[in-house]
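Backbone shape codes:
***
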Amino acid sequence: MKYWWILMITIFCGCEFFQPKENNPEQPIAKVLDNFLYPSDLEGLFPANISEADSSQLAAKYIEDWIKKQLMISRSQQAIDFNEAEIERKVLDYRYALMVHAYEKKYIEKNLNREVSQADIQAYYDTKADNFLLRQNIIKCLYVQVPKSTPNINQFRRNFRAYPDGNTDDLRSYVTQFATKSFLEDTTWIIFDELILGTPLEDLQNNNQFLQRTSYSETSDDDYIYFLKIFDYKISDEISPLEFIRDDIETILINKRKIALKKELEEQIYEEAKTNGLFKVFNH
């Protein structure tokens, strides 16, 4: 039976819960005081491809939540002397806000240019760089973690320390075969604290001093050896490099375009209405 949960609610709640409203031919599912919940109220709420058991479970949860909500509303009305007109005004305001938001979203999706040039990003960075202070230390580096039992570790160590000179193909091949964790994008900024998480370097007393004094580090614990070669670093509270925040600036510029389109739509509708005489301000 598709709606076996209706029968269950009938059994547990009693027949009086199923007295329908005079103007509704449906059999109600639940009732709280003078408020009824009908099967049509649940239509379209649940995915069409779920099982009958899952559908029944979701329906039962919805009904329980509906009952609790109606009880809370009833108790609130008893406890507080609400200004019904004010409540209705807020409900209308919210309804209209949802409608306007949906229309603005549709307009923006249709008209938004998401292409952001490098020149736009650079120009914004040049004028707003002071707003982009680093919150954490970042570095450009090579990082490799290998088990202590890994073969030919001395040859790898020589290649690692010699990088970018030396045999880089051998180094990358070795990392592919034996490393349990690595970062070889030596031109990409990475957050230092995230990189060293779970390594002996996590216990550093002064990260800033370490970065200022260190270009090569090799540490170990019972299981692994951790190789780190630092090519560049930036300390927290310094201005962030453009490469590190490029995506953030692109998002900011796109959001500014969205705001401009929203304003454009508002002005366009206003001017059209003004031209067509759709509104009038009365002076008293």
Observations:
- The two ends are 67 Å apart (CA to CA).
